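Thread: Modeling a multi-component assembly for a lab meeting

Hi all, long-time lurker, first post. My supervisor asked me to bring a structural picture of a complex we are working on to next week's group meeting, and I have zero experience with this. I have the sequence lines for every component (941 residues in total). Could someone generate the structure of the whole assembly? Inputs are pasted exactly as I received them:
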Amino acid sequence: MRITLDPLTRLSSGLRISVELKDGFVVSAGCSGMVYRGLEQMLLNKSPMDAPYFTQRICGMCSSFHATASASAIESACEATGTVPKDALVIRNVLNGFGWLKSHLEHLYLGFMPDLADPMYRDILNSSDLGNLLWKELKNRYASPGGEACSDALRCIRSISRAEGILGGRSPGSPVIVPGGVTSRPTRGDIYVLKDCVEDIKAIVQKRLLGALSIEEWLESTHDNGGEHAFKYLESLSRDDLSEEKGWGDLPLFMMFCSRMLAKDTLSLPAYIGLDELGGYPLDDQLIGFLSYGSFYQVRDGYAPVEDSQAGSFVLPAGFTPGGLQNINSAADRLDPGLIVEHVYASFYEDGEGRTSEAPMDEETVTVEKADAIGYDGIKYSFIKAPRYGRVPCETGPLARLINSRENLIVDTMRKLGGYKSAGYPMASVYTRTLARMQEALLLCRMLQGWIDDDLEAGDGIRRCVHVSPKPGSSGRGLIEAPRGALGHWLRVGDDGRISNYQVVAPTTWNASPKCGEMKSGPIELALLGCQTTPYGYVPGSEANPVGLYHVVRSFDPCVSCAVHVIRG
Amino acid sequence: MDDLKNGPNMTRRAFLAAAAAVGAAAFLYSNAPGVAAAIEKSGKRLLWLRGSGCGGCTASMLSGGNPEVLTALNKIKLELAYHDGLMGQQGVFVDGSPAGDSGHNSNIRLDELVDEGGYVLVVEGAIPNGPEGSGRYCMSGATPFKQIFMNAAPGASCIIALGTCASYGGISRSLKVADATGVSFSGTSRMEGAMARYGLNNNVINVPGCPPNPDWLLLTLADVLSGADVEVDAYGRPKAFFGSAVHESCPRRGAFDRALRDDGFSEGNCLYNLGCKGTLAFADCPTRRWNDGGSMCTQSGGPCVACVEPSFPDAFMPFFSKVESRGILGDVDVDTGAKIIIGATVIGAGIHAVKRLAIGESGREDEKGGKR
Ligand code: SF4
Ligand code: SF4
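Re: Modeling a multi-component assembly
Sure thing. I ran the full set together rather than chain by chain. Output:
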């Protein structure tokens, strides 16, 4: 049986998923991006300084991240990264932090969680009292439209946008991130309004995700001290009342009841949704890795591009961890940007000279311009290219970041899952991916508060931008993290001072990548292999509403507008 | 539609004036019952299609003013019947055939809505015709977006082209091979817009902006649904929002008039020398402001890039070059270029008129003297 999801909704448009099932299990999977805009081609011969404003229009959800990556690429081409003033970097941190939190909330509450309120779960959970209680919570909170969580999230998104607007002029599409720094000069009054916004935002996030504990309490016991505290806390909560007031915020509720390992295996609870069994990978260092570029500048003047002493430049470190579970027991590998290449074997592009892969800066690929060449069932089936780190496809995003920073809650949860009675649950799954996004949302609240309370300064004498001007023949790259993962911009300036090559490799380019020249699947494809139409296996009728597949794909928070990129040589 | 005109208990003129004068929040809250009553009678549904774009228009609506778009739509009892980014359904095919019903399957849902007709159609993103006239650079549900649009347009009681891509082609039009256009315009040309190209002739209102301000959409919607004839300019934009230049009421206008112009970012004065195109951009950003009235581009030190104009972005790049520099007009002849950019407002004006417009009013040349 072949199931095709086209379009997969509740994400930025244009994603098609096609899977072949045999005896109820997915045996092959294809992931296609279906919209081609060609932003990089448009940038050829333009002024390099225009790139941040232009590339922020790649994606309406990620405008400030693209602007930041693009400004970084120019700063690196000008060898000016060490001179960008601290106060500019703080404002970039705050703007990116807000945008990042907003993106996580949009994804969780408008994209991912509504699938948990699918009526299919009512029919399965109603076999026990706890199940009925659980269903009531899922439906009241996540049904879209109308769920409480959805309207809380919308309120929070509005508050965040208001805060972004104060520093950024407007959101999305703020013009303040420019090569050399930022343009805005917040006043003391602005900072007070921002503080107010942060209180408001934190209150909503706290109520939603945690219910009873404060963000500080939760992070102190889990992020700072490890997953065991979280497991104990979950066990201590009432099971007669699953309301937020009793501590069952969205995070604890998800952490307990969307894990078969915790709810059923450990506590013998009659109600659970096994998202920890869903969307994992074979643990093979050659088949999958976890990649992050590092993000959020340390509060000081200047930063170092990733090839130098990057470790000290970013709050969230760059790194790479190969797929095998044992690798989380040692530190992450240092990131080597030289290993990043892209393939077009299965993508609607022709490689200029028949090479199989190229580093982004050397790429010369040609988009197919024949209508017949664009079909979704052949060897070529996507507008998304296939980036690889060395030869390894990589997952990128909150889970990869928390793995690479060896974040306590996530790493301990993964250890517990991976080591469970030698049977083992996959360490990367719909469950850990979503848990990582929730934990990161809480961490962002803490970081934002820090920057705004301690580091953001008002006053006229403060320098917030240095003059940069890219020289003919120079080139640079800007590697940062966006909410969905590793985002890289590469730029080359021609002898005439105009852009001669521009490349973007976005998070979803990694996650939704098609097969490469070596026939290795991209992360979403790989995560779909072996899946069934629901977390409980095949349920009659579920082929027409394969909730299990939705969970897997949406857990990556794919964004197709960002993912599709090409350059014409 | 006729009997709706009395629905909100307002004359059309009064409605427009009120809509333009206040933010969507104030307007919708004070008039919501009337607007809702009018809409309830018409049983209006909103069908929101997304073509070749960045999703920024939707993101802007969610980030929006006060209330954000979903609450606002709810308030005026307008049903968002189809929006691929927000709806519960998805397109599902089993062995190549559409599966399930409209409760689960977005493609079936869309077909049903189109068959019923009588909706307001919001289009976000441009409509690519390429390659080779196939429209396959943008597909959804195994169908080129251009076909989806052609199916949906005839049944719409009104089409709102949301954002600069849908209005004029915008960023998405910059790539020639994609052959993408806006709904009723391609750049400044009506002849090359999708409506003319595909022989369609519904009423289209443009709500440009890259991205657009949520107020612009909400108030235009309320306006349309109340049966008002929305007064538009030569580029199909409601005059109420796109009637005067950003420069006219810019928060930095005082600095401009005193010829205090910055040559570097974040210095605090007028951004004219840094390439601000506020003189050429017709939108009420300075009075309406963004994100709940907090700020706007030039206020935060970002030069206006004229994101609401039909020739955005090409005619306004390099973004950091002064308006009267020849360079900004690209390959276009200077005189014609000026006309294209500023359009009907300054018909016949050459580049000198642009320059006068931009700096002449202050009666003196820039003190720091055009360094750039
Ligand atoms: S040129 Fe730009 S910054 Fe200066 S007053 Fe006009 S709109 Fe404002
Ligand atoms: S100020 Fe200019 S660039 Fe900014 S939103 Fe208004 S028209 Fe667009």
